[in-house]
């Protein structure tokens, strides 16, 4: 076992956060810089493959199948501070740890991710904690397991699935678990006794029009009712009621509310940066995300600070696939900054969301803020078994052996080959 007691010192490169982005960056630069030049701050001893939580919720994978020991993922050349970062002080090139110690750096990569905020929904924390409440979520490890138990216990009534207003990890996940629950209900013979509703803050079922059109067909075929521009605000467990704000065309609460009874309620929470990040006013935007150039990933104020993954205010969807694309840009630009050269790489906003729609088929959504950017030379909005095989059996090994090891920078090269050099 690696000791968690280390000599506090100055780091050439300090990384805050040991998730996908932090580990990927640490792995890349551990291969470029001398021993102990790179340090990572991460208090967690377990690392989860979060895209697998959908399969955990559906009972197709165990939680243990989606986790690794953090120490096994951190390169041996990297110093590991098994602490939480309490305060970022970019003006002094330093980070204060939760034990009061201070680390200094030449360059900083912020990769803290975002956290689900169930506390912003009245009654949600209590309902999620109570076994058999019917309230569940795949957005935390133990709750993903609870989701499976609640879906299995469902016999009849209203099954409600929600999508919040604001940033969220993997915007397709609330739909994925809904389609898999529908499939489970059918296999168990209780689908005819179930009414499934999807409440979303969006004006349509998905943010990218091409995939929204395909998903509209899915919900109609499955007899799922879509409620657009609605946001869960309260759970009343004593009456098994979910209270929704109705939003107007400007994306603001209209003052009208909807009350809906439920037997099963899956909660997808809005996600926010951790307090350590959001409280550093010199680094963040008004929403508390690290303010970076969306193409170079460099801080707009501090040239020796970069951010990667969900904690950055880049306009892409917040997915592991987005991290892969950002890692390639970070590698080039951070190396250039260290050598006093211009930043030469631009992140294009790529993200991917493999939408499980049941029947061992997936709509393989790949896109940027400008629209679809697909890798395969076929229409990926069509549900396909081959896309399911990629999601179920390829993407997790690619994550463990490619992404967090700093070898996988997304499918750009593969896309160019399959499209004969064209971007799409």
TrEMBL record:
One family name in Pfam for this protein: Pyr_redox_2
Substrates-to-products reaction catalysed: ubiquinone-10 + hydrogen sulfide + sulfite + 2 H(+) = ubiquinol-10 + thiosulfate; a quinone + hydrogen sulfide + glutathione + H(+) = S-sulfanylglutathione + a quinol; ubiquinone-10 + hydrogen sulfide + glutathione + H(+) = S-sulfanylglutathione + ubiquinol-10
Keywords: FAD, Flavoprotein, Mitochondrion, Oxidoreductase, Quinone, Transit peptide
GO biological process: sulfide oxidation, using sulfide:quinone oxidoreductase
Record domain FAD/NAD(P)-binding: where: 12-125
InterPro entries: FAD/NAD-bd_sf, FAD/NAD-binding_dom, Sulphide_quinone_reductase
Localisation: Mitochondrion
EC numbers on record: 1.8.5.8
Record flagged with keyword Oxidoreductase: yes
Entry GO CC: mitochondrion
Any one GO molecular function term: quinone binding
Broad class of where this protein is predominantly found: mitochondrion
The protein's required cofactors: FAD
Record-linked PANTHER family: SULFIDE:QUINONE OXIDOREDUCTASE, SULFIDE:QUINONE OXIDOREDUCTASE, MITOCHONDRIAL
Function as written in the Swiss-Prot or TrEMBL entry: Catalyzes the oxidation of hydrogen sulfide with the help of a quinone, such as ubiquinone-10, giving rise to thiosulfate and ultimately to sulfane (molecular sulfur) atoms. Requires an additional electron acceptor; can use sulfite, sulfide or cyanide (in vitro). It is believed the in vivo electron acceptor is glutathione.
Family: Belongs to the SQRD family.
Name of this protein: Sulfide:quinone oxidoreductase, mitochondrial
Gene source species: Mesorhabditis belari
């Amino acid at each position: 076992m690696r000791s968690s007691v280390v000599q506090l010192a100055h780091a050439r490169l300090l990384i805050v956060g040991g998730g996908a982005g932090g580990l990927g960056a640490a792995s890349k630069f551990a291969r470029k810089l001398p021993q102990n030049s790179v340090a990572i701050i991460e208090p967690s001893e377990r690392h989860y493959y979060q895209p697998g939580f959908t399969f955990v919720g559906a009972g197709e994978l165990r939680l243990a199948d989606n986790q690794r020991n953090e120490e096994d993922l951190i390169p041996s050349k990297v110093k590991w501070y098994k602490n939480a970062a309490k305060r970022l002080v970019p003006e002094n090139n330093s980070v204060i740890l939760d034990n009061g110690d201070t680390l200094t750096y030449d360059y900083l990569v912020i990769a803290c991710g975002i956290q689900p905020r169930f506390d912003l929904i009245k009654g949600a924390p209590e309902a999620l904690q109570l076994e058999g409440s019917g309230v569940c979520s795949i957005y935390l490890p133990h709750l993903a397991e609870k989701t499976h138990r609640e879906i299995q216990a469902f016999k009849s009534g209203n099954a409600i699935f929600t999508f919040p207003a604001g940033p969220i990890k993997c915007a397709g996940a609330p739909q994925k678990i809904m389609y898999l629950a529908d499939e489970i209900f059918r296999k168990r013979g209780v689908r005819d006794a179930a009414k499934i509703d999807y409440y979303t803050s969006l004006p349509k079922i998905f943010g990218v029009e091409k995939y929204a059109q395909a998903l509209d067909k899915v919900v109609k075929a499955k007899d799922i009712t879509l409620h657009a521009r609605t946001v869960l605000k309260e759970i009343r467990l004593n009456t098994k009621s979910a209270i929704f704000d109705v939003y107007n065309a400007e994306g603001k609460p209209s003052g009208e509310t909807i009350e809906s009874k439920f037997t099963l309620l899956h909660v997808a929470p809005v996600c926010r940066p951790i307090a350590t990040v959001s409280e550093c006013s010199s680094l963040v935007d008004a929403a508390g995300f690290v303010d970076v150039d969306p193409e170079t990933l460099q801080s707009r104020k501090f040239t020796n600070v970069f951010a990667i993954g969900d904690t950055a205010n880049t306009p892409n969807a917040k997915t592991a696939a987005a991290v892969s694309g950002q890692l390639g840009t970070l590698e080039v630009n951070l190396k250039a900054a260290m050598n006093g050269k211009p930043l030469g790489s631009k992140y294009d906003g790529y993200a991917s969301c493999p939408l499980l729609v049941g029947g061992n088929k997936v709509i393989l959504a790949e896109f940027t803020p400008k629209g679809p950017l697909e890798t395969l030379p076929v229409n990926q909005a069509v549900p396909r078994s081959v896309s399911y095989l990629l999601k179920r059996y390829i993407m997790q090994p690619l994550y463990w052996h490619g992404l967090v090891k700093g070898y996988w920078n997304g499918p750009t090269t593969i896309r160019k080959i399959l499209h004969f050099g064209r971007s799409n």
